[in-house]
Amino acid sequence: MSGAESVGDDPAVADIDRTPVSDADVCVVGAGPAGALVADRLAADHEVVVLDAGPRFDPADRLARQERAIRPFYDRPDVWGVGGERDAHENAGERAYPLNHARVKGIGGSTLHWQGMVMRLHEDDFNSGTARGVGPDWPIDYADLRPYYAEAERELGVAGASDNPYAPPREEPHPMPPFEPSHSDSLFAEACEELEIDMHSVPNARNSEPYDGRSPCVGYGTCQPVCPSGAKYDATVHVERAEERGATVIDRASVGRLDHDDEDRVTAAVYATPDGEEHRQTADAFVVAAGGVETPRLLLLSDSDRYPDGLANGSGHVGEFFMDHLFAGAGGTLDEPTRQNHVGFYTSACDQFYDEADATQAPFKLEFFNYAGPSPVEMALSGDDWGDPLLERLRDGYGNHVAMGGLVEQLPDAESRVTLADDRTDDHGNPVPRIEWTVGDRALDTIERANEIQVEILEELGADVEWVAGPDATGPAYHHMGATRMSADPDRGVVDADCRTHDLSNCWIASSSVFPTSGAMNPTLTIAALALRVADDVDARLADA
Amino acid sequence: MELTRRDAAAALAAIGATGGVALGVRRAGDGDAARRGDDRPADEGGSGTGGLPDDEAVHETMRAVAAVVYPGAVSGVDAFVDGFLDGRLDGSSHDEGIRAAVADVEAASRSWYDAPIADLSVADRESLLRELGTATADENPDGTTAERVRYYVVNELLLALYASPTGGELVGIENPQGYAGGAESYTRGPP
Fold first, then answer.
1. Active site (annotated) includes residue A479
2. What CATH number does the domain containing A106 carry?
């Protein structure tokens, strides 16, 4: 395979058997990290089938996808073939939500394009109402998830250190040593020391040494959206392991609805395949792990006489409380080399202000970037110059940038929601998701607070501050959360503390869509921990049955 | 600063061809017909099957363009371009796109300057490329002639150079994006 335009995104392939598996115990909808971990965990002892709407990507294409990431002709969704009729959606909120920049459909899901940052939520994140006076408490707390966090870190392969005094308690070191701080981290460290701001390492789902048969990071520098070396964890790891243990994974199988019986049990996932056929996958248990938007959409598409507002929607909350993390950032230039864009991940952060959160200030974290400013190779491919003038432009443009980022929690709001579009349908005739994303004042005010600290650090560093991403310029971090929230009370949530739907006894949701509040930590480690916990619950209930 | 075959292999490894293998088994002009599964000889005058230029002709044109778009600070350009193309002309649709764009460049050169681009002065080669519109065009593999030449010829060469370690060092980054230069260089201060 050679060349970015040569990547095989064509629809497929008639000679693959996409018919249902007979006598399945568990049907998982979605082959992202949650679905893959559930499938892997259950496959040894149960007949497991995984259905995913997207394709199975050829690992041999990853360099060509990297070329897409670098070449200006390709937009971010082009890297993994997102978009088109299959992925159509509508925006109706006060802020546009760029859904197809925020996800990948296919085997591996959005971990194919994620950056791979894996922090645990803080203890107060599970008790926002009690500890901060806003938002609901989760029906589980940090202690419930703590062993699953440790297990998720082993499963994904996390490089990290225990030098973060603000992180929640942990019982063992990370599976791999951390990545060393960057040169620019050392510059930031001097400024932060002056300001008495603490820096510490960050956990990366990226191999700092060989792990689980995968390569250590070799520095391609395109982590987000593609890691050609496989050093960055993606969910194909667990999909492949699940298949080795006997699971069946069917790609390009778009689940359009879940059917149920009169005893409030899901009976089948009804899916369409590229040949135009419709199939029914029956199973004893169903785990919906289709991501933060497609999960509520599937429930809404599965309305019935018994569930006229959507399956598992007795509470009326399916689709409501859609959240993301808000980006806060600032950057500029120094009068010395800063050595940016060698790698595509960051190595230092600051959680010092996270637990100051209360009813008016959201939790937030700060990040010290290793990829500030332009990448020379990307710069080289645009512009009307070449030869010596181009080299001069590259030298002028690269070398002395610095930047900080940060993530800010937004509170759940019923008006921020995923519904079904009235008139627009996808390639199978199903109404597409309609997103109304709203952001409240607490988050916007906290972005300003984060900006103040970022600018203070940059100025102490001696930087000429050239940009600030504040409340007016903020955007989502592509962490879709909240739209099938967890609650012990069936009137207040879609799933219970075990992530099992209140309404249907054999249906679980493994997704960030169950988060009642979002905290400000990247969600995937929590998704993984919850997925492992879901797998244990499914296993126990199947055993009881 | 000299470009080496290591740079060519690194560029190939960065952007989608198995550079080490390709560099080991192919040389410019070798095996063109066999690689395409086609036993017809290449046409006279450097055209391969289907009217597209053969490997040798592609190499010659790309070397000529590289002399324009690469900075004067690099040497070893011809060997670098040859090594890179040995891996990039791999029978894929991208290979075909390169050949078609090269054919467009050559057609314009012969029409407007009465000679293949390799026979023109560097100044005339640059004029030709600008008259083709490639300097101001956005790259597009399915676009106009100018956009395709930008994609398959000009940016192909620039991508190869600036994703290589030597090309990166020209700018001050020895591990440029796309090059698997290890996970240590980011920790080091400036040399």
1. yes
2. 3.50.50.60
